[in-house]
Amino acid sequence: MKYKIGLIHGDGIGPEIVSEAKKVLDAVSEKYKVTFYYQNLLLGGASIDACGVPLTDETICQAKQCNAVLMGSIGGDAMTSPWYQLEPSKRPEAGLLGIRKSLNLFANLRPAYLYEELKDACPLKEKIIGNGFDMMIVRELTGGLYFGEKKTTETDGGKTAVDTLIYSEDEIRRTAKRAFAIARKRRKKVTSVDKANVLESSRLWRAVMEETAKDYPDVTLEHMLVDNCAMQLVANPGQFDVVVTENTFGDILSDEASMITGSIGMLPSASLNETKFGLYEPSHGSAPDIAGKNIANPLATVLSAAMMLRFSLDLDKEAAAVERAVEKVLKEGYRTPDIMSKGCKEVSTSEMGDLLAENLSVMQAV
Ligand code: NAD
Ligand code: IPM
Ligand code: MN
C-alpha cells in the first residue's frame, strides 16, 4: 500500500524531532513493505520566513491531498524572535490555528499514559501513582476562546481587551459523540470537565453532554469542575478514562497530564475531523530553550506518528510495532535528559531515533 504523508518540520526543536519520527516511519516502511511518500509543507515561523505569512492556501491545499500530516511544533521565543514583532494574525500560532480551523480538526486526542519504566520520572509519589494511569483527553479544538471574537478598544480610561468564549450546541455535540465513542472502546467512563458554576458556555456544554450520554447507556458520564480536575490529576490520576473538555481547559490540563507521564516530551496528539484525515503533532511546543542541541525528547512525535498509522492509515499492526519499540527502548534504560533517572543511559534525540529504528527492524512482526 502507498500513502502520502505531509511533513511539517516546524520551528525550534520541530525539525529535530520530525527527523526522528521519519526515521521510525522509514523503518516501518522497510519492515512492513508499505510505501510512504512525503511532502514537506510549510507552517508557522518557517512559513513566515519563506512566504511572509504563517499559513498559505498552498499548504492547506497540499495537506488536503495527503492521507495525513505529521508535524513538529511551531513558534519561537516571544521575547527575542522577530516573528512576534508582527501583528497577532501574522504570527506562527495563527498558522497553527488556521490550519486546524481550515481542515475542521475539532477533536484533539491527547493520550496520557504512564509507562511502567517511567514511574521514576513521574513527579508523583508512589502511593498516588498506584497501578499507573491511562487516560485519553479529548480537547475541543476549533471553538471556544481561541476562535471567538477578540478586540482591544481604547477609551479615555485606557485600553480594554475582550476574548469571547463561544460554543454552539453542534460544536459541543460532535465533540461529545467522539468522546463517548472512544470511551466505548476503553473503560467506558467519560469525565466532562467544565466551569458550569460560573460560565454560561459550560452550562450549555454540560447539558449537551447529558443529552448525548443517552445514546451511550453503556458509558458512565460524570461532570467535574475544571479547578477540581486540575487538582484531581495530581491527587488521583488513575480515576480518569476519557476526559472531554473545551479548548482552553484542554490545552492547560493536557500539559499538566503530560508532566505526570514523566515529561511533556512524552505526550502525542491527533487532531481529527469527520474523515480519516488527521494532523498529528506532539502536545508540546517548539522548546526554543533547547533547540539545536540534539537533546529534545522525540517520543511524543514518534508516538504521534503511531497514532497517524492507526487512525488515518488503518495500519494497526505497524502502529503497535512503533509503540512496542518505544516500550522496548525505555525498558532497555535509554532516556533523553528530560526523562533521565538514576541507572539509565542518557541518549540524544538522534540516538533515540536510531535505537527505535534498529529495534523495529529486528523486532518480530506480529
Ligand atoms: P514548550 O512546550 O515549547 O516548552 C516548555 C518546556 O518544556 C521547555 O522547558 C522545553 O524545553 C520543554 N520541552 C518541550 N518539549 C520538549 C521535548 N520534546 N523534550 C524535552 N523538553 C521539552 O512551551 P513554551 O516554551 O511555552 O512555548 C514555546 C513556543 O512553542 C511558543 O512559541 C509556543 O507558542 C509554541 N507552542 C507550539 C505548540 C505546537 O506547535 N503545537 C504547542 C505549544 C507551544
Ligand atoms: C498546543 C499549543 C497551541 C494551542 C498554541 C501554540 C496555539 O499550545 O497545541 O497545545 O494553544 O492550542
Ligand atoms: Mn498547549
From TrEMBL:
It is an enzyme of class 1 (oxidoreductase). Substrate binds at residues 100, 110, 139, 227. Mg(2+) binds at residues 227, 251, 255. It catalyses: (2R,3S)-3-isopropylmalate + NAD(+) = 4-methyl-2-oxopentanoate + CO2 + NADH. Its EC number is 1.1.1.85. It is found in: Cytoplasm. NAD(+) binds at residues 285-297. Pfam families: Iso_dh. InterPro entries: IsoCit/isopropylmalate_DH_CS, IsoPropMal-DH-like_dom, Isopropylmalate_DH. HAMAP family: LeuB_type1. Homodimer. Catalyzes the oxidation of 3-carboxy-2-hydroxy-4-methylpentanoate (3-isopropylmalate) to 3-carboxy-4-methyl-2-oxopentanoate. The product decarboxylates to 4-methyl-2 oxopentanoate. NCBIfam families: leuB (TIGR00169). This is 3-isopropylmalate dehydrogenase.
